[in-house]
Design goal:
Layout lengths: L1 E9 L5 H9 L17 E7 L2 E7 L10 H12 L6 E7 L10 H6 L5 E6 L6 H14 L4 E4 L8 H11 L17 H16 L4 H4 L1 E11 L5 E11 L2 H8 L4 H18 L2 E10 L7 H6 L4
Parallel strand pairs: 1-3, 1-4, 4-5, 5-6, 8-9
Antiparallel strand pairs: 2-3, 7-8
Helix pairs in contact: 6-9
The structure holds guanosine-5'-triphosphate and magnesium ion.
Length: 296
């Protein structure tokens, strides 16, 4: 039996969550085209007859934290260095190469093997992969590299094999059927947040947090299973509340419909969803709020 912890880090939007979902084979972490989608460390557990890999998806490492939530996100990433058996450093090959990439700093303290995962190879010529790999190898301690497309699932099975080859002998840390360390309501909140990222522009996605007020599994009058979910959307200011609600409540109605459908898909049951928008003054910079929201 082989087992271990495999931590996925990189800059925002590199494709870390897409990769974790592909490696685990489940839709777990939310994915959007906007950077800074993931805000927490989220485990995805892959168990086989002779192995267990505990992946961690992490927030994109923010170069210049603008508020305390960013600092918390960066701390989640820094914490992954300590407990990694293998590091997956994900880099988007379409991105410019930055000599001041803040991920270098994180990697300096890393003693685990680092696999450089050059993602989005579907968007570039093969030579670009070699060039980018060469650039990284001059600047960081890279054990090996591979070009993949997490989106298309190209190279992900091979990557899983490479990861396994580095894992030590060890027991399964979690029951075989456990997929993650997070409860269902965490994912319910994440799914609502994903739809906020998709439907709203500018600063709104970055100003919202979702909290599940209650989550009840019941039945309809006809005995059909039904999840009743009451969720709060926290914004930072009154003016943002007006935007989230929209004219005559149209925007939040659309959000509710999108989120309910996604929740029904995820939970495989009918869902009744009620969304309430609340102002929690400048929550991104407020220690107490951040603590209640699980950032500290
Ligand atoms: N073309 C292409 N797009 C990809 C690939 N992998 C991910 N993407 C896209 O890149 C965007 C970001 O993907 P995510 O998985 O959310 O990236 P992330 O690194 O988790 O981002 P943060 O959570 O914001 O740090 C999404 O629009 C994905 O569909 C890939 O292999 N090819
Ligand atoms: Mg992510």
């Amino acid at each position: 039996m082989k087992s271990g912890f495999v931590n996925i880090i990189g800059r925002p939007n590199a494709g870390k969550s897409t990769l974790m979902n592909a490696l685990v084979g489940e839709r777990m972490s939310i994915i959007t085209h906007k950077p800074q989608t993931t805000r927490h460390r989220i485990m995805g557990i892959l168990s086989g007859p002779e192995f267990q890999i505990v992946f961690s998806d992490t927030p994109g490492y923010v170069k210049k934290p603008s508020y305390k939530m960013h600092e918390a996100m960066n701390r989640f990433v820094e914490g992954t260095v300590e407990d990694a058996d293998v590091m997956l450093l994900v880099h988007d090959v379409t991105e410019e190469l930055e000599d001041d990439n803040p991920v270098f700093q994180v990697l300096k303290d890393c003693t685990a093997p680092v696999i450089l995962v050059l993602n989005k190879k579907d968007l570039v010529q093969p030579q670009r992969i070699e060039d980018v790999a060469g650039w990284w190898r001059k600047r960081a301690k890279i054990t090996e590299y591979t070009g993949i497309s997490a989106l298309k699932g190209e190279g992900t099975a091979e990557l899983r094999e490479r990861v396994l080859s580095y894992l030590p002998e060890g027991p399964a840390y979690y029951p075989e059927d456990q997929l993650t360390d997070r409860p269902e309501r965490f994912f319910a909140a994440e799914i609502i947040r994903e739809k906020i990222f998709v439907l709203y522009d500018d600063e709104i996605p970055y100003s919202c947090e979702v909290g599940i007020e209650s989550f009840q599994e019941t039945k309809t009058k006809d005995g059909v299973p039904l999840a009743r979910i009451f969720a709060n959307i926290y914004v930072m200011r009154e003016s943002q509340k007006a935007i989230v609600l929209g004219k005559q409540g149209l925007a939040i109605k659309k959000l509710g419909t999108y989120a309910r459908k996604a929740l029904e898909d995820f939970l495989q049951t009918r869902v009744y969803l009620e969304l309430t928008v609340k102002v929690r003054d400048n929550w991104r910079d407020d220690d107490r709020s951040l603590q209640r929201m699980g950032y500290q």
